UniProtKB/TrEMBL annotation, chain A:
GO terms for molecular function: L-leucine binding; oxidoreductase activity, acting on peroxide as acceptor. InterPro entries: AhpD-like (IPR029032), Sestrin (IPR006730). Belongs to the sestrin family. This is Sestrin-3. Keywords: Cytoplasm, Oxidoreductase. It is found in: Cytoplasm. The keyword Cytoplasm applies. Its main location: cytoplasm. One of its GO terms (cellular component) is nucleus. SUPFAM superfamilies: AhpD-like (SSF69118). GO terms for biological process: cellular response to L-leucine; cellular response to leucine starvation; negative regulation of TORC1 signaling; positive regulation of macroautophagy; regulation of response to reactive oxygen species. The keyword Oxidoreductase applies. It comes from Larimichthys crocea. It catalyses: a hydroperoxide + L-cysteinyl-[protein] = S-hydroxy-L-cysteinyl-[protein] + an alcohol.
TrEMBL record, chain B:
GO terms for biological process: autophagy; cellular response to amino acid starvation; positive regulation of macroautophagy; positive regulation of TORC1 signaling. WD repeats lie at residues 116-158, 203-245. Pfam families: WD40. SMART domains: WD40. It is found in: Lysosome membrane. Keywords: Autophagy, Lysosome, Membrane, Metal-binding, Repeat, Transferase, Ubl conjugation pathway, WD repeat, Zinc, Zinc-finger. Catalytic component of the GATOR2 complex, a multiprotein complex that acts as an activator of the amino acid-sensing branch of the mTORC1 signaling pathway. The GATOR2 complex indirectly activates mTORC1 through the inhibition of the GATOR1 subcomplex. GATOR2 probably acts as an E3 ubiquitin-protein ligase toward GATOR1. In the presence of abundant amino acids, the GATOR2 complex mediates ubiquitination of the NPRL2 core component of the GATOR1 complex, leading to GATOR1 inactivation. In the absence of amino acids, GATOR2 is inhibited, activating the GATOR1 complex. It comes from Larimichthys crocea (Large yellow croaker). Residues 486-533 are annotated as: Disordered. PROSITE patterns: WD_REPEATS_1 (PS00678), WD_REPEATS_2 (PS50082), WD_REPEATS_REGION (PS50294). This is GATOR2 complex protein WDR24.
Length: 444, 789
């Protein structure tokens, strides 16, 4: 007789259902607010990224589902590990926003605050991931069977295949999300804030971003959006219990934060306060070899790097089966994302979408036999190509992307659509390289 | 060519012969195909396009079709097919979207014949018509299928799959005009080659892409499909709706499926990922492959039976750059290695075990399950089917039935129904529950209840002279208590119990002892108390009577007092119950809280007598008879955790509720909530709604009590137009009538509306209550005898 129901989830779920019930689902707006509500109820936050994606609710749904699955649901990796991997991934692209977000979540799920001091403080198992993180982020074509072998080599710090696959999925997800964050300029909101006035600690702590009931998102979201969300929340008077929980977890976290800050201070008592904050904000602590970055694939073609032929290793035929076997159900979720991003209603023609997609894969060394790459040049103007390449290959928070001139008349949602395409294409590219390496390892 | 055809005739006359053999290719293969007379095989891949002759002992390379210094992508083949009528004709599907035909009869080195570049995306499949020489069909990633007449320069018809990628196309073997196409979204479509405007039939065969399909070579209605969902399905297409007749679950996505010639139920499959083997299945035996070929080191990409009428040769190409000829006689038979043994738990705890008959019978010691013969008829022995070449294994099945009483969940249901959790004084509740447990033959639980009673109602006992006497007597014989208990304690204890509950079988006697000893190792104090019960047998009986008297008296007193001393605690959370028409519940509620209070109060009031007592009887140093209730709390907490861990969360929750404040603070909220949730979940599974509701009501966790506030929505229909009312309860949007009118005052009811479930008339709660006090009939005058309780 098994009688253990999940104690934490139960009340939340009923709350959630009730909240849902109260929202009348008609039309896109409600769909979005419903999704936000769900996110709010389940994680206590609606981050800026989701708010950006809100213009494409159909996609947002599958995105949130995937993200929730890989970060919070069943999987071989412990929760703090997952967020730490996400931090490592985001740090590769200096994405402060994601580093903060996941640092907060890392602490919330009970991660050791010491780890946040940098990669050296993390367990050796996570440090082993650094190399594949670096390669996948910047030159995924370098991913080789030998990397996988090193990680899986039996020993005290070895990874299991299932863990590795989940780690790779998280890495790829976060790398590509960095592109989106960069493309949508979400990150720039954070930079001035986190490096704010010397001496006084910033009034806004980035950790609050993960917190539903602070007023932080107001600075990120358009006010109207935010207001609707608030109202719909308040109208449901039943969620007192939920609010209490959030409150409680917030208090706990604040305590932890304090502890963290204390350790920080202890570690760096001799440093000036300002420096300390900046240091705390500096994501390079989570990576090594910060100079490693994207290099033109084409230029390297003369070397022995072979072009990756999609016809020989495709997501639909190969990647899906492998990833789904080693990390159940993730295949379907990712499949859903890839499908929904290409079928999103948009002003862009299917040809243009395909050109963007194939162009990104092309700069990452993946070729389609059945595509005439001349089309890319016809359909994508030079500045758009530059933009795509910048977002896909150099998403660096310290710069702002130069938007192509032709974008001026476009609606925000169309721009976001392009960014989504870039993100998904990059995600798939990284996954393909990583999964092919794993396949090769399994055969060998 | 001349020479080759001569060889061919020689072979076909003597039947095909050969052995398992392989040859290295220069590059991974994507597909293979044989010519009609089974003497040659073509291998195609990204970097390979060659023809090999199949000789007795080896493969011999005949021809390399990949010519030119820098071959174009047209040579990069996703699929290849050798025409089954015209032995010089080949077709390939190129990864760049081209469909190419090759004529081996050409004198030049480049055998390329025609090039069709109509597809925009990779062509996944080409297929020649089985009887028509010039008809070629292609299916592409761009979602189109095209039919080519090889005498013309372009396609003659295009079939649209509605933008879904086509993974496979196959002409029907028997129906001249029909072909099947499988799609990436899981659908399979049937087309008539003469009608390119729309498909004849479509059905969803798999979840996820259908990578392959194959028509049965003999049975015209059968189509086998294989998909990414790791299934092979056989469809009967002769009926109106495609019917799935067989389904084989493999361990990896199915890349190719090919019916085995001359064997109606056999088909071969290979996978696209992870699994490198080729399996031959008997579709009637879907759980274990009939034969396996395990030679390849990387995924198998192409399989083909060498000859249309010979089931013994299978050719395969692989990503590991080898080409194999497999002999069926060399195949691995997984059945031989399989352990024909099975073990399964039944719903009610029965255990079934099947094993080879030989194993079972050789074991003389093992007795088959009782009355086994009775059950044999339910197994029918399959008639050995000569076409089914599976080794037949006959197994013996043993069913080990568990003692029904011990493993059935009846006790849970009964216990849940019979337990009293509130409404009586604490000691009575304990007694009642102990009795319930005892009657259900759960002595340990029963004893636990009794002990709880003793532990937590001590102070109350002390106030009566009887109890005093009892205890002092116990105190004088402390050593003997613990000693005598083992000898006679249990027996006498039972006797005293028998007095109280007649008709108990002697069975209890046996149960009691292990129960006692079991618990006693938890806690020595308990043991002594327990022992005392048996020791002072007649005394105890008396004392108990006193107990009851005392309690009922005390309860009365307390209940009155309680009305004004502790109302907030009792009602704060459930204020709406005041309005609730179900009065009995209300009353019960009152009572429910009273024992808690009385218990507490009793403790406080009795404090002085206890102290004085202990001062007087200071000459009894061995154990103090008045251990405060809180003394037991850690033990009780342990006990509760023990029960919960044992899976008896019912006990944990029941004790928690009955003990109330005595123990609540000892256990952290989360654990309590967890127990409550589990118990409520169980109760709801057994559909014990009343009990579950009672538990919810009695619980003190806010997270639990708020469960009762969920799904409190009532959907009502308008009484005039009988349609659902959407927003407001009293006015209908559609007929603009006031729907809920009070039958007494004829005003609209806003707020609480009470109605009769018999005649559905009703009105204001107050009005109806008043009305039914004076009259038995419905106020609406319908003549129904309404009742308000």
């Amino acid at each position: 007789m098994i009688i253990c129901t999940n104690k934490m989830e139960y009340p939340l779920r009923t709350q959630c259902q009730r909240v849902q019930k109260q929202v009348m689902v008609n039309g896109e707006k409600e769909r979005v607010s419903l999704l936000f509500m769900k996110a709010l109820v389940s994680t206590g936050s609606v981050d800026a990224v989701s708010q950006q994606m809100a213009s494409h609710p159909q996609y947002l749904e599958s995105f949130l589902r995937t993200q929730h699955y890989i970060l919070h649901m069943d999987g071989p990796l412990p929760l703090p590990y997952r967020h730490y991997i996400a931090i490592m991934a985001a740090a590769r692209h200096h994405c402060n926003y994601l580093v903060y977000l996941h640092s907060a979540q890392f602490l919330r799920v009970g991660g050791d605050p010491l780890w946040l001091q940098g990669l050296e403080a993390a367990p050796p198992r996570l440090r082993l991931l650094d190399h594949i993180n670096k390669v996948l982020a910047h030159q995924p074509w370098l991913t080789a069977c030998s990397h996988i072998q090193t990680l899986l080599k039996s020993g005290e710090q070895c990874w299991s295949l299932a863990e590795l696959v989940q780690a790779v999925v998280i890495l790829a997800h976060c790398h590509s999300l960095c592109s989106f964050v960069f493309g949508c300029d979400t990150d720039s909101d954070f930079v001035p804030l986190s490096k704010s006035p010397n001496g006084t600690p910033p009034t806004f702590c980035p950790f609050d971003a993960a917190n539903g009931n602070t007023n932080v998102p107001q600075s990120l979201a358009t006010p109207s959006e935010h207001k609707t969300r608030r109202r719909s929340l308040d109208s449901s008077c039943d969620i007192v219990c939920l609010k209490e929980r959030i409150q409680k977890s917030q208090e706990e976290r604040e305590k932890r934060e304090e502890r963290l800050l204390q350790t920080q201070t202890l570690q760096q008592t001799d440093m000036e306060e300002e420096e300390e904050m900046i240091c705390f904000a500096d994501p390079t602590r989570f990576i090594t070899d910060p100079d490693f970055c994207y290099q033109e694939f084409a230029r390297r073609e003369e070397d022995h790097f072979q072009v990756f032929r999609v016809q020989d290793y495709s997501w639909e035929d190969h990647g899906f089966s492998l990833v789904n076997r080693l990390y159940s159900d993730i295949g379907h979720l990712l499949d859903d994302r890839f499908r929904s991003v290409t079928t999103l209603p948009s002003l862009h023609s299917p040809d243009l979408k395909r050109a963007i997609w194939n162009y990104i894969h092309c700069v990452l060394g993946i070729r389609y036999d059945d595509y005439d790459y001349g089309e890319v040049n016809q359909l994508l103007e030079r500045d758009l190509k530059l933009y795509i390449k910048a977002v896909a290959c150099f998403p660096d928070a310290t710069k702002t992307p130069v938007c192509p001139l032709s974008w001026a008349p476009l609606k925000t949602s169309e721009r976001i659509h392009v960014n989504l395409l870039i993100m998904e294409a990059r995600l798939q590219a990284e996954l393909l390289y990583a999964l092919r390496a794993i396949t090769q390892y399994m055969i060998a | 060519m001349e020479k080759m055809s001569r060889v061919t005739t020689a072979l076909s006359s003597s039947g095909v012969s050969g052995r398992t053999m392989f040859c290295h290719l220069d590059a991974p293969a994507n597909a293979i195909s044989v010519c009609r007379d089974a003497t040659q095989v073509v291998v195609a891949g990204r970097n390979i396009f060659k023809i090999y002759a199949l000789e007795e002992e080896q493969f011999v390379e005949k021809l390399n079709l990949r010519v030119g210094r820098k071959p174009s992508l047209n040579f990069s083949c996703a699929d290849v097919m050798w025409h089954q009528m015209e032995e010089n004709l080949l077709a390939t599907a190129a990864t760049n979207g081209a469909v190419v035909t090759w004529n081996l009869g050409k004198p030049s080195r480049n055998k390329q014949d025609q090039l069709f570049t109509e597809h925009k995306r990779t062509v996944n499949k080409v297929c020649f018509h089985p009887t028509e020489v010039y008809m070629l069909l292609s299916g592409s990633q761009d979602g189109f299928m095209k039919c080519f007449d090889l005498r013309k320069k372009e396609s003659v018809s295009t079939f649209s799959g509605q933008s879904e990628s086509v993974r496979d196309v196959q002409f029907s073997m028997k129906d001249y005009f029909t072909f099947a196409a499988s799609f990436e979204n899981g659908n399979v479509q049937l087309w008539d080659i003469r009608r390119p405007d729309r498909y004849e039939r479509m059905f969803t065969a798999h979840t996820g892409p259908v990578f392959c399909c194959d028509w049965h070579p003999d049975d015209r209605g059968w189509l086998a499909t294989g998909g990414r969902d790791k299934m092979v399905k056989v469809w009967d297409m002769t009926t109106n709706r495609a019917k799935e007749i067989y389904c084989v679950q493999t361990i990896a996505s199915v890349a190719r499926v090919k019916w085995r010639p001359e064997r109606k139920f056999h088909l071969a499959t290979c996978s696209m990922m992870v699994d490198h083997n080729i399996y031959v299945w008997d579709v009637r035996r879907p759980f274990i492959p009939f034969a396996t070929f395990e030679e390849h080191k990387d995924v198998t990409t192409g399989i083909v039976w060498r000859h249309q009428h010979d089931p013994h040769f299978l050719l395969s190409g692989s990503k590991d750059s080898t080409l194999y000829q497999h002999m069926f006689k060399d195949a691995t038979r997984p059945v031989d290695k399989a352990n024909p043994e099975g073990l399964c738990f039944g719903l009610f705890g029965d255990l079934a075990f099947a094993a080879k008959e030989s194993l079972i019978s050789s074991d003389a010691n093992r007795k088959p399950y009782p009355g086994g013969d009775r059950r044999y008829p339910i197994f029918f022995f399959k008639k050995p089917d000569p076409t089914e070449q599976f080794a037949h294994v006959s197994s013996a099945l043993s069913v080990f039935e568990t003692d029904l009483d011990s493993n059935r969940m009846d006790w849970f249901v009964k216990t849940a129904q019979l337990y009293l959790l509130s409404g009586k004084p604490f000691a009575e509740l304990c007694d009642h529950n102990a009795k319930v447990a005892r009657e259900l033959k759960r002595p340990q639980v029963s004893t636990t209840w009794t002990m709880l009673k003793i532990m937590f109602s001590d102070p109350a006992n002390l106030t009566t002279p009887g109890a005093n006497h009892n205890l002092s007597k116990l105190g004088s014989l402390p050593l003997m208590n613990s000693f005598s208990m083992k000898e006679m304690g249990s027996g006498m204890g039972t006797e005293s119990r028998l007095e109280r509950s007649k008709g108990e079988s002697r069975q209890d006697n046996i149960h009691l002892e292990p129960g006692n000893s079991h618990i006693s190792n938890n806690n020595e104090e308990n043991e002594e108390t327990e022992g005392s019960e048996g020791q002072a047998e007649y005394m105890f009986g008396d004392a108990e009577l006193d107990d009851d008297d005392l309690y009922s008296m005390e309860h009365d007193n307390q209940a009155e007092e309680q009305e004004y001393t502790l109302p907030q605690e009792a009602f704060q959370l459930r204020h709406e119950i005041m309005d609730n028409p179900s009065a009995p519940e209300h009353l019960q509620q009152d009572k429910a809280d009273s024992p808690h209070v009385s218990g507490n109060e009793a403790e406080v009031t009795c404090l002085t007598p206890i102290e004085s007592f202990s001062l007087i009887s200071i000459s009894q140093p061995l154990f103090s008879p008045h251990l405060p209730a809180s003394f037991f709390c850690p033990i009780v907490r342990e006990m509760l955790s023990y029960y919960a861990e044992q899976g008896d969360v019912q006990m944990a929750v029941s004790v928690l509720i009955v003990l109330g404040d005595r123990i609540r603070k000892e256990i952290d909220d989360l654990t309590q909530e967890h127990w409550y949730m589990s118990y409520i979940d169980l109760l709801q599974r057994f559909e014990l709604w009343n009990v579950s509701n009672e538990v919810i009501k009695l619980s003190t966790c806010s997270a639990i009590t708020c469960l009762n506030q969920t799904s409190t929505t009532l959907h009502i229909n308008c009484s005039n137009c009988k349609r659902p009312m959407s927003n407001k309860g009293w006015i209908c949007d559609r007929c603009h009538q006031c729907a809920s009118v009070c039958a007494v005052c004829h005003h609209v009811v806003k707020g609480l509306f009470v109605w009769c479930q018999g005649c559905s008339h009703g009105g204001h709660l107050e009005h109806i209550m008043n009305w039914l006090k004076s009259s038995a009939h419905c106020p609406a005058g319908c003549g129904h005898l309404c009742e308000y309780t």
